[in-house]
Amino acid sequence: MRMPSSSSSPRALLALSLLLPALAWAGPDLGVAEKQPLNWHAIGMFFVFVLMTLGITYWAAGRSKSASDFYTAGGGITGKQNGLAIAGDFMSAATLLGLTAMIYGDGVDGYIYMVAFFVGWPIILFLMAERLRNLGKFTFADITAYRLRQGPVRTMAAISSLTVVCFYLVAQMVGAGQLIKLLFGLDYNVALVVVGALMLVYVIFGGMVATTWVQIIKACMLLAGGTAIMLLAFSQFGFSFETLTTKAMEVHKLGQNMLSPGKLLADPVTALSMGLGLMFGIAGLPHILMRFFTVTNAQEARKSVFYASGIIAFFFNVIAIMGLCAIVLVGTNPEFFEGGQVGGKLVGGGNMVALHLAKAAGGNLLLGFLSAVAFATILAVVAGLALAGASAISHDLYARVIMKGQASEEKEIRVSKIATLCLGVVAVLLGMAFEKMNVAFMVALAFGVASCANFPVLLMSMYWKGLTTRGALVGGYTGLISSVLFVLFSKSVWVDVLGHAAPLFPYTQPALFAMPLAFLAIYVFSKLDTSAEAQAERAAFDDQYVRAQTGVGAASAAAH
Amino acid sequence: MSNPLYDNIKRDPRYAQLVRERARFATTLALLVIGVFFAFVLLVAFVPGVIAQRLSEGSNLTVGIALGFAQFVFFCALTWVYVRRANRDFDPRNAQIVQDALRKS
Known about the structure:
CATH class of chain A: Mainly Alpha
CATH superfamily of chain A: Sodium/glucose cotransporter
Largest sheet of chain B: none
Structural class of chain B: mainly alpha
Shape of chain A: globular
Strand content of chain A: under 5%
Largest sheet of chain A: none
Low-confidence stretches of chain B: none
Number of domains of chain B: 1
Distance between the termini of chain B: 16 Å
Number of domains of chain A: 1
Structural class of chain A: mainly alpha
Helix content of chain B: over 70%
Oligomer: heterodimer
Mean pLDDT of chain A: 85
Shape of chain B: elongated
Number of helices of chain A: 24
Strand content of chain B: under 5%
Helix content of chain A: over 70%
Low-confidence stretches of chain A: 1-31
CATH architecture of chain A: Up-down Bundle
Number of strands of chain B: 0
Radius of gyration of chain A: 23 Å
Distance between the termini of chain A: 55 Å
């Protein structure tokens, strides 16, 4: 296993985090970061961002009255805005830092990984985007429970949504704490409380309107900052790919091999499993699915994925060039290595490549800007996750399961605000508890559950007439439990966290195994279900299909 | 629990035609993406030598980088193709079917 020369983490941890698709979304595995001196440029710029977003939250609070405003911004977001917000949700701080570090350390392997990370988007556009908008209202359980028994199906969807949200939230929090300690010189616990408090303000007062706009602003900042750094750095090579790569190969530890695929995808089973998990995991993440309900209609939903795909594809290529430039500009500059030892340990650890490049290409001002963007990114993603988790609790569990649809709108909104508060507190406390742990496995778990429990049931409910309550329940729980067990028994938890000698399950990626299992369970148990209820559920498919196809009867946008 | 509006739509032969065409179009595009991507992954896993080959003598542009970049461009182009056909062809037909069904019910 090769790894970036600059890693600050122990070898085993880094090897693990590179194998996991995790790296790119999770808080990058920063290990335990050292606290840096206070960075005033970064703090100043972050302060401006916070003021702006608080202003937006104040404005949004005045417009957030109904449940639909709170959960889905009243369905009034345009395709272009939503495309930016989706891209923003997808490109977390870890994407920027992790992928730049990956190209820096592994050369072309990182680029291959980026393709895998991107390819889910066109699939979502072709197969899901319009149907999601036509069938859903606030949560994706609105779709899976559309013609099935509400109580048990929503309970299942809420449990797997909350599993995904909690693991993802804690992973983001731990990453955030380490990163902020590093970038801003703030104490780890203080950083967590700041992130948690701001997130609560956005979500509780501004609901989805504020959450979406925070995400849009951050996406624009990320795009602008990344592109500026790429252009400044690339200009030092006369914008020539040949000059850049020739120089990079001269100084990179892999030399000519930098441009050949390495060990990242050497094992076909892991490669396939990773590909599947990356591709379909996105289509099962509650905070991404939720975005499809914020647009006016199916046409805007389609447009938003079109824009999101373009933005993500563009930005991944920007990151790839940034990584290559960093090999020369950061990798040969003693200023960025501890003790001035070129090729030794990078100041602040392996994931600091993008930030060092910002300094090398644009000085302290650009470094401050990119640090502020990284902080903003974490905030925006965390807010989206909290809102997705809160809506599973209030809209699915409280309003539909416990109150059986009898809860008033005010009550439902109040419950979701309380749920947001609880989720925020839990995330901060767990983030503090997990400070010194490698949390990469949490993202593997989140993606495992998203791709193996949420996605199969969601897909089948939209496409297969034969789906029944029993099939959905058995299939969903099979996917949930098996993906959790596969990750538990894999090296990432069984060996690295629990300290056993050898893993019980040889692969770190559950998707290739747990996803077919879930689909099989859905199929078999639906087929075996001959009850009258099951017949009625199959009969209801045709009407659901008409709505999915034509948009007639779809939840409409609020008039603002 | 069937809704008369939905029944009107279901009875319209143009609805069945639209659904069939749209499904074929979307599935073709999706399979194209999945096929191209997994062919690429298998190429990387089983014949990494090809991926490392240079496109032309003396250039650093490898087959792998070129194929990776081509996929970004190709998949984005496909999303454009999909949105364009949906906007120009499917949406107006859909609107017409719904409008006629509304008039009848």
